[in-house]
Amino acid sequence: MAAGRGRVPASPRLQGIRAPGVPSRQCTSSTHLIGPTVSASPARPFAPTWLAVPEDADALAPAVWPASAHRTDGVVVLGGVPATELAATYGTPLYVLDEGEVRTRARRTRAAFERAAAAHGTTARVYYAGKAFLSTDMVRWVREEGLCIDVCSAGEFAVALAGGAEPARIGYHGNNKRIAELTRAVREGVGTIVVDSRVEIERLAEITAALGVVQSVLLRVNSGVHAETHAFLATAHEDQKFGFAMEDAPAAVARIREIPGLRFLGLHCHIGSQIFGISGFEESAARIMALHAQLAADCEVPMLNLGGGFGIAYTSVDDPSPIEDLADGIVTAVARESAARGVPVPALAFEPGRSIVGTAGVTLYEVGTTKPVRVDETHTRLYVSVDGGMSDNARPALYGAAYSARIASRTSDADPVLTRVVGMHCESGDIVVEDEYLPGDIAPGDLLAVPATGAYCFSLSSNYNHVPRPPVVAVHEGTSRVIVRGETVEDLLARDAGVPAREGKA
Fold it and tell me: Whole-model pTM?
């Protein structure tokens, strides 16, 4: 459900994430200091190959930050609001979400797919994948930009409805949808349910019969094409929990077509996450369209949903394809396969999440301690501890995900040094940014900003070590406001049934 490692690529980095089998401290040969006490050396054996020494350790790489991000008097400004003001107002850690960036990316994505589809005589619908980040404000933003909503739990469905989403413009995912949540979805008039098992087909048969309605469904299938990312995310191969094998799909579709309360719309396939190019989508489209044409020979199959998984830049060397290129390439591939099989190009649907919200998010931390650690006889690494960590961003610990960081409260003329930004949790794997060059004078009290945290950071957050989850603050045109309230220690105690009731409280 979130991004992770990939196979060892030919390029310097693959999609901002480490490959399986590649040590987290992979060595390379290059030139620079790795610690503030080390003189120039022909090798920096503890820096990864992809990480170059920056000419300016204060510079904000455009691809990684929201378009609004810049420095004024040395301070990073997001959505027109200085980071120092945000930290002073709301505290740290703090999730900051640039509303303008979200809206721009949503609008651009919808336009790209609609244009590409129109060029081939069909239509395209874009669903925002709520699992990346969801709140009622987020629902409102993407809804106002013309996107539908994709949910995968009763909670996400409730948030989508509370945010004003029309049930008919919601798609419902999940490999283990309970009877109660399916019943509510059908009763509310949800647009499509993505069927994931034979058990679910029979559940829907009973529910629709009891309610006297007809429910539109898609069948999730595994094309056998794997995204070049972490095995947890290569969700189109057969040995995993999602969907039907290709050879089992015709029988499942035949059963759906037998049920009066179900309307079969078409197939759904998702090949993974954090994907930069179109080759995987092209191959998957070829396989899916073969099945689509087979099913269309018996009855109309009006739609094809190819999922999401479009990548973003997490570091300065990541180079994701522009959404326009992805849209043109994917739709062209579907049109080509349709023509080859003599079937009309189906109406298309896509489910981007990370590519809409990921770059819009920046997490602010306060530096608590710094510690130079000698890693061999001649090299030192600077450890920088911040007041958050794996409870607000689990992705580095879960998937080895790489991030970047910059001092947000000032600029510095100090030489950059190889740094590891770590959290405050009682866990050696609590790493926020494994490898980064930061100014050597970084010190307690500095504000540190980690960009590209809009997707899967808040969604995966936890109370590990009984740490309260941070608030989410939206910034837009010089204003800021809380869109998800943060937690306090009192909130944690309030859920503990063993804490004696306070006087005046139940």
Answer: 0.88
Is pLDDT at 468 greater than 50 in this prediction? Answer: yes
User: Catalytic site residues?
Assistant: 426
Q: Report d(CA 458, CA 430) in Å as an integer.
A: 16
How many angstroms separate the CA atoms of 127 and 133, rounded? 13
Is residue 317 within 8 A of residue 323, CB to CB? The reply is no
What is the rounded distance in angstroms from the CA atom of residue 84 to the CA atom of residue 34? Answer: 29
Cα dihedral across residues 69, 70, 75, 80: positive or negative: negative
Question: What was the pLDDT predicted at 227?
Answer: 64
Averaged pLDDT, 381-396: 97
What is the maximum span of the chain, computed from C-alpha positions, in angstroms?
77
| DSSP conformation class of 310 | B
User: What is the arrangement of strands in the sheet containing 75-78, beginning at the earlier edge strand?
Assistant: 70-72, 75-78, 81-82
CB-CB contact of 395 with 456 (8 Å): yes
Domain annotation for the chain: domains and CATH numbers: 70-91+360-493 (2.40.37.10), 100-357 (3.20.20.10)
Find out whether 417 and 379 touch, Cβ atoms under 8 Å. no
- Owner of token pair 């009682």: 426
The percent of the chain in helix, strand and coil, each rounded to the nearest 5, is: 30, 25, 50
- The yes-or-no verdict on residue 20 having pLDDT over 80 is no
Which residue type sits at 55? E
Q: What are the tokens at 382?
A: 């600077």
CA distances from 346 to 171, 267, 327 (A): 18, 10, 15
Partners of 386 in beta bridges: 367
Q: Whole-angstrom Cα distance, residue 461 to residue 361?
A: 14
Residues 6+ apart with CB under 8 A from 385: 367, 368, 369, 370, 371, 422, 423, 424
CA pair distance 326, 320, nearest whole angstrom: 10
CA separation, residue 406 to residues 54, 201, 412 (Å): 11, 50, 11
CB atoms under 10 Å from CB of 502, counted, come to 10
Task: Note the pLDDT of residue 501.
Answer: 75
- DSSP assignment of 243-272 equals SEEGGGHHHHHHHHHH-TTEEEEEEE----
Alpha helices in 179-231 (DSSP H): 179-188, 198-211
